Amino acid sequence: MKKDRPLILISNDDGVAAKGLNELIRFLRPLGDLVVMAPDAPRSGFACSITCHTPVSYELVHEEEGLTIYKCSGTPTDCTKLAFYTVLDRNPDVVIGGINHGDNSSVNVHYSGTMGVVIEGCLRGFPSIGFSLCDHDLDADFAPLERYVQRITMKVLEEGLPALTCLNVNFPKASSFKGVKICQQAKGLWVKEWIRRKDQEGLVFDIAGEFMDTDADCELNDHWALRNGYVAITPTTVDATDYEMVKRMKDWF
């Protein structure tokens, strides 16, 4: 790795073979040296979970000048932590998760393994970005995202991000976009989340669900932007403190 080029650490939750990850690698190759540590199989919905009760391992998949790819038996957050501990010879200039096959806007940020990568990078003090496309197709078309991914990454490399703030970037499924909107996180929740069925073990439940936007007319939120053909960038803080409530509670005791 050349120390005069930016170092970009990449992981995802769809696995090392996912098209979204490999398209992201292609998009970012001109911008710097890449180290990829990705799960050996899909780990969607793992959020910031870590592996506590079984050993985690990794192995080299591919290496060439400016690009090294590893696969890991753990979660997306495991991948990120392990990359820092084992294979990085210097700090990354940016940590990137994605490109996810599926929407990570609104409350999905709390469930997303893609954003687990990003939050781990952010907690460690590095500028971090998550990229997601609202298309679960394994062969989704990522081509329209290329120049946006490059421009957003370049801007973060140039400007940095505030401490404990990362970017959650979502793209609508479209051949082109109306533009970019800087958004707030949409309010909403998942409903009809389980499908009941019987198998040999008896009654079981499969995860499903429909997202219900409880503020659908708010043009400031990321879900509105995606529905209307815009790239949605949501600056996201990992400091979960409610500072207004801190002020209110001072009079409680």
What does this structure look like?
Helix 2 runs parallel beside helix 3. This protein is of the alpha/beta class. The chain has a single domain (7-185, 218-249), classed as Stationary-phase Survival Protein Sure Homolog, Chain: A. The chain is globular, with a radius of gyration of 19 Å. Helices cover 23% and strands 30% of the residues.
Main attributes of the structure:
253 residues, 9-stranded mixed beta sheet, two-stranded antiparallel ribbon, single chain, globular, Stationary-phase Survival Protein Sure Homolog, Chain: A, alpha/beta, 13 strands
Give a summary of the structure in a few sentences.
The chain is α/β, with parallel strands linked by helices. It has helices at 19-28, 76-86, 113-123, 146-159, 222-227, 243-249; strands at residues 7-11, 33-39, 58-64, 67-72, 94-101, 128-133, 165-171, 180-182, 188-191, 194-199, 202-207, 210-213, 231-237.
Strand order of the largest sheet: 3-4-2-1-5-6-7-13-8
Q: List segments where confidence is low: pLDDT < 50 over at least 5 consecutive residues.
A: none
Q: Taking Cα atoms only, what radius of gyration do you get, to the nearest Å?
A: 19 Å
Sheet-strand content, in percent, reads 25-35%
Largest sheet data = 9 strands, mixed
Percentage of helical residues?
10-25%
Shape annotation: globular
CATH fourth-tier homologous superfamily: Survival protein SurE-like phosphatase/nucleotidase
Q: Any idea of the CATH topology? A: Stationary-phase Survival Protein Sure Homolog, Chain: A
Query: In CATH terms, what is the architecture?
Result: 3-Layer(aba) Sandwich
Total number of distinct structural domains = 1
The number of helical elements comes to 6
Mean pLDDT: 93
Instruction: Please count the beta strands (DSSP E, at least 2 residues each).
Output: 13
N- and C-termini, Cα separation: 56 Å
